[in-house]
Amino acid sequence: MPMTSTGTLYVCGTPIGNLQDITIRALDVFRNVDLIAAEDTRRTRKLLAHYEIPTKTISYHEHNEFSRAPQLIEMIKEGKQVALVTDAGMPGISDPGAHLVDCVLSNNLKVVSIPGPSAVVTALSVSGFSADEFTFVGFLPRKGKRREEALESLAQETRVAVIYESPYRLTRTLSDLVPVLGGDRKVVVTRELTKLHEEIIKGTLEEVREEFSQRTIKGEITIVVGNKER
Predict the structure, then answer these.
(1) What are phi and psi of 137, to 5 degrees?
(2) Taking the model in full, what pTM does it have?
């Protein structure tokens, strides 16, 4: 694809598992930009190597996003083309990216979205729940009052809810949701979406909690909670 003559930030989606899920447009961007700002340069280089793309990468993650942003803004002001990627999915969705995009827009510079995979919509699409309305929770706070408040908020939510979780905390989270939402609330747990060992388990909260409590759990986890009966 032709690059613009002025500097631009391209916000690019990358595969959440299967490398073939990258879009043709994203590959064109990666080949033609001056620099790719990546959450994990090692992981991004594996993707680039798979498609034989030599473009230079630079780290841009949660620990340096505020200090790195001015450097990237200056490059864009000078007319450079910069792509922004995270480890998987779309930047800014439970991943770094929002701050840089905000800085670019605040400086009246150009931002272009290159849409791609997202675990949120991928999990929703295979949940069997109607997602005319849904709320994205992301990762629940790990402990303390913030976790309690997040769980209480979920108890009041009537829409389908999407939660990200670590495999190490999945059983605990399902157990915490049972008294809050009720053991008979329908839920889907997706694991390793688009990967070799992809798994989709649907049932009541109590059934799914029991299923995973008896297993060693690995991989990326997305939980979809069915809507509350009104």
Answers:
(1) -90, -30
(2) 0.91
